[in-house]
Protein 1
Amino acid sequence: MTDAADKLASARTRLILDQPFLGALVLRLPLKPAHWCRTTATDARTLYYNPRWIERLSGPQVEFALAHEALHCALGHFARRGHRQQRKWDLACDLAINPLLVDAGLRPPPEALVIDLYRGMAAEEIYPCLDDSLTESQMMDEHLWDGDEGGRGEAGSAGAGGGKAGGQEAENEGSGGATPAKVGAGETAGMGADAPPAPLRAQEKERLQRQWQRHLAAAAQRAREAGKLSGELARLAEAALAHQVSWRALLAQFFAQAARDDYSWQRPARRSEGKNGEAIWPSLSSRMGDIHVALDVSGSVTEADLADFLGELNALKGSLPVRITLFACDSDLAAGAPWVFEPWQPLILPRHFAGGGGTSFLPVFEWIERQGARPDALVYFTDAEGEFPRQPPNFPVLWLVKGKAPVPWGRRVQLN
């Protein structure tokens, strides 16, 4: 068990130094040896491991195994299954994670299933692509957050990715041993618990999901500050966090920043300066915001989506002094666009847009540049499948995205 403990400690240290994003997530999981565990397992609270299996792996393979379990937790796989079949969902989660870790330079153990076809896809996208023959594949690890749906081996020993062979192997390895050295907080004496932990309850899943969202955001921020957050992992963290953020709340934040009451400390004119030693107090000034809003009317965004979005904009305009310049664009700006709505004017679509053609975001940015305008922010409502300007503008851009497409710059918010 000492060899396993040393390997785990060394692997965590290397991850912290070389892959600080993954290393920070791994540190959130206490490590516990367990005789019932075939390889590794997690219930989103603890990482369980079989010492004999860890001893057979190389150092880079141990890093992969640790990062694999941590990403399951950070991405909230334990809370996203819904009504999907458990075994198939567990496999989809593994197939989503493993290519990411390979691309990050980690070396998978022999048991890890890596299929290039699913590279860059989320578990929800992979799930419907899996056929019955693939779901019979044995996965590397065990997912302990859900109850048994026939995925575990006998006596619960093989877990979601196990089977009778894996369970028998774990049973043959005995249960003696000392506390693993250098593993960190959370270890238990001997080989750990005698049985897997109970599945998570719904309330516990919700609590853990919020907790792991905070861990994910903190890990991404620290790795970004260290200059060691790869593009793919950065997009992964952004996508995982974006769908948890209310686009309505972000819109309100953008509007509030653009239109606000504040105190002015500018020196008043000489004629209005205080006399006889009177104090000169700051004055309260109001500022009208200037927000540009662009609608993708290529047909990918429905009229119901547009109505919902415009309704939210009107609600915000009613409480904040904001002027809105409205664009409608597919591959070109719509005839008559843009339209300007003062703070007291309700925001409405001037006409029906049939959609069609391709999508290009260039016309909106080109119009703003020609006019020499500098809005407080541009909010673009789109599916993000189109031609982007090569360089970002000198004003904030908020992309409200319906679909899975990425954006090259600006802030992307997933529309649910």
Note: Residues 2-242 form one domain.
Protein 2
Amino acid sequence: MLRALLPLGLLFFTGALYGVNIVPKEYHGSVQFIQQIELNANFDGVDFSEISGLTYNSRDKKLYMVSDEGKLFEFYANFTKDSLELRPITAHYLKRKSGKRLKKRKRDSEDIALDKKGDLYIAFEGKPKISLFRKDGRKIKNIPLPKQLKNATLRSKNKSLESLTFHPKYGFITALEYPPKENPREVQTIYSTSGRVWHIKLDPIKKNAITAIEVMDDGNLLLLERAFLGYFEGYVITLRKIYINSCKIDPCKSKKILQMRSSNGWRLENFEGLARVGKGRYLLISDDNQNPFQRTLLLYIQIDKE
């Protein structure tokens, strides 16, 4: 079911906030699009662009976003049944322990997650790395990666970690953007810091990649997948549920929740971020690639209970 766009009525920073509709008229799926917004702004003098990940702390209503340029953005965010409210708090460049900004070649921050204490962790592309940061953007330490991930052979140096989430049972969960070389191209591996590993089979779509992972209400996983097929065919964006709680076979059972194709009338962008913000409720955000012809889109959705 598709809900109509609602009046925004949101507080925001210097710039612009627009209601959009990316959904084709003929859509009748089970995912409800509660609100769809285009963000276009500067944040306290820090350019708000290339958003690659986000995470939400429901206890203090803080929404954190990270860009793949090594920037951290903090918002107050309140989610109601029919709308959302955003207010900016602060923005920081990610910094080394010394307080100096991360070196350019080490700024490729791709996703962000909070642990059960509310501490903030960021996953980096390039050499796989997950690091603990303070809320002011200063690095505290790297955390140990599981052996299987450390030993994985990347398809290229820019095909590393894009996703990160925290699971109360398995610890941090992540995946490489593309399968390691030792896997067939359609078989992906999901890694946890507790040592558990799951294999999943993705659709055989050219350049299909995992860009975000989130823990669902029932403890299973929701994957955000993205494939860019070129300027004429556009994007394929997929939300897929992975049943890790009952996974006794290889690959694990999965279910396609939603698949959106530019070629089928969806007005898509490069969706890279996913966060659970309430029971059955999620945010998706796109990376504008610092391209004036692309947009930063924020989608507030409801996934019906199975």
Note: Residues 1-15 have pLDDT under 50 and may be disordered.
Protein 3
Amino acid sequence: MLHYISRRLLLIIPTLLCILVVNFLIVQAAPGGPVEQAIARLQGFSGATAGGGSRDMGASSSGVSRSSRGLDPALIEEITKHYGFDKPMHERLWLMLKNYAQLDFGTSFFRGAKVTDLILQKLPVSISLGLWATLITYLISIPLGIRKAIHNGSAFDVWTSTAIIIGYAMPAFLFAILLIVVFAGGSYVSWFPVQGMVSENFDSLSFFGKIGDYLWHMVLPVSALVIGGFATLTILTKNSFLNEISRQYVVTARAKGLTESRVLYGHVMRNAMLLVVAGIPQALIEVFFAGSLLIETIFNLDGIGRMSYEAAVSRDYPVVFGTLFLFTLFGLLIKLIGDLCYTLLDPRIDFSARTA
């Protein structure tokens, strides 16, 4: 097992390297790099400028675009040097990889702060959303899926399936808007705040008051995140249990006189949960990163998802690659943890016999 874990951890290094190199080449080819962004700001352009302004920014970041006409060439050269585009692409790539090996993600082009500090500043928001959404999803979905499997075809199974299908069909951002309209003073009641993680008077609250205020602000965004993953995991759990209940070992266990709870939770659950555990890495990645962007935007939460999107739009490359590095590393580690969870549920799985 230790040999397998060591091998997987070592494989993370070339995987990160390949992903960073590929994305570096793709991003460098994208029009409107940071040099053009800076020149456009100096000339008074905005992101909404139509016509020739946006077309002028389509040139390569390493060269001088048409939008630079009218500016002092020395100023343009200084801007190019400031963002590191006075060097060839391969030198910029090598410098970035060397710095990343030292966990130095550089400084944001437009935020004026180190990328590491920005990530640490935004991380609590994304972790709060991700952990609460994942925890609530699993606490509800697994018991509900088990009960649906036990009472398969009953009235309870039918109406819960209907509710689950409706929840699955509704996008998270649309559900978030519905929650705001109903519960955040949109048209009906005003029970919950519509934005932010804490209130303005958070610092003056007592310890338990701060906890209550924080949880109060988390209700709506976490509920919006839970709706999609909740439906998928419930159906997965139900189908896994139905598949295991029909197997011969369950019939044998019942024939031996074991209680139904002993059969379900002592035998069936261990095997059925393997499929559920297999979906944990993907579920966590989606909740932490893919699903949080729109939720952070709608509820005005300043997290990593929102920051990475804004960085991609403004071509803030240090922030883009810093968050990409974090997302990739987190995803690879979560997949490793998911594999190790298999052995806790089923000791018969032996990863030491695997070659990769």
Note: Residues 46-67 have pLDDT under 50 and may be disordered.
